[in-house]
Design a protein that fits this description.
The complex is a heterodimer. Helices cover 0% and strands 61% of the residues of chain A. By secondary structure, chain A is an all-beta fold. In chain A, the strands form two sheets. In chain A, strands 2, 4, 5, 6, 9, 10 and 11 form a seven-stranded mixed β-sheet that branches. A four-stranded antiparallel β-sheet of chain A has the order 1-3-8-7, with no helix packed on it. Chain B has no helices and eleven strands. In chain B, the strands form two sheets. In chain B, strands 2, 4, 5, 9, 10 and 11 form a six-stranded mixed β-sheet that branches. In chain B, strands 1-3-8-7-6 form a five-stranded antiparallel β-sheet, with no helix packed on it. Classes of the chains: A mainly beta, B mainly beta.
């Protein structure tokens, strides 16, 4: 069966520090991968999606970046965090017609 | 364009019914429905594809009116476990790669 792993679960980082969140999927190959951010009252905002290794599409211009170094690995990064980067970050993968499966999420607080 | 969900919140007693609506200003290829418990990741409920179909499982069902660009989620004989925030996600591109989520509907089921 397919599983998705995301870590860490919680993170408190100072403003200006770097960020690296990792997501891996098991049990499938060539999945579509996504990074979403959820802020209170704003639903789920698509940040990046990837349909293959090295293929990244950005939806929102900001100081975040994403990379897909391996087929089932998706990484969200930042060189310098802002206060506004705080939120609940969710990685997801999908199979066409079967909906998205989300990871357990990372709650990031920038202080 | 973010779909509009209504109502924003609803409170039910166990056994009562509820309807959650999702409207888009653009033509839709598909609509996804998810439920999120507090502090957890969203969980996929169902997907409705272009064609106006209605789907369901157990006592949760949904309809999709592509002419009106609307979808509705029906919860009948609600249970305590139905509590959570319900999100619709819409695909306007046909690629399934860029779901846009509504702000969510908070459903509370009381004994």
């Amino acid at each position: 069966s397919q599983t998705i792993h995301q870590w860490p679960a919680t993170l408190v980082q100072p403003v200006g520090s770097p960020l690296s969140l990792e997501c891996t999927v098991e049990g499938t190959s060539n999945p579509n991968l996504y990074w979403y951010r959820q802020a209170a009252g704003r639903g789920l905002q698509l940040l990046f999606y990837s349909v293959g290794i090295g293929q990244i599409s950005s939806e929102v211009p900001q100081n975040l970046s994403a990379s897909r170094p391996q087929d089932r690995q998706f990484i969200l990064s930042s060189k310098k965090l802002l206060l506004s980067d705080s939120g609940f970050y969710l990685c997801a993968w999908d199979r066409t017609g079967k909906g998205y499966t989300f990871g357990s999420g990372t709650r990031l607080t920038v202080v | 364009q973010q779909p509009v969900q209504s109502p924003q919140a609803v409170i039910l007693r166990e056994g009562e019914d509820a309807v959650i609506n999702c409207s888009s200003s653009k033509a839709l290829y598909s609509v996804h429905w998810y439920r999120q418990k507090h502090g957890e990741a969203p969980v996929f409920l169902m997907i409705l594809l272009k064609g106006g179909e209605q789907k369901g499982h157990d006592k949760i069902s949904a309809s999709f009116n592509e002419k009106k660009q609307q979808s509705s989620l029906y919860l009948t004989a609600s249970q305590l476990s139905y509590s959570g925030t319900y999100f619709c996600g819409t695909d306007v591109s046909g690629s399934n790669y860029k779901l846009t989520f509504g702000k969510g509907t908070l459903l509370t089921v009381n004994p």
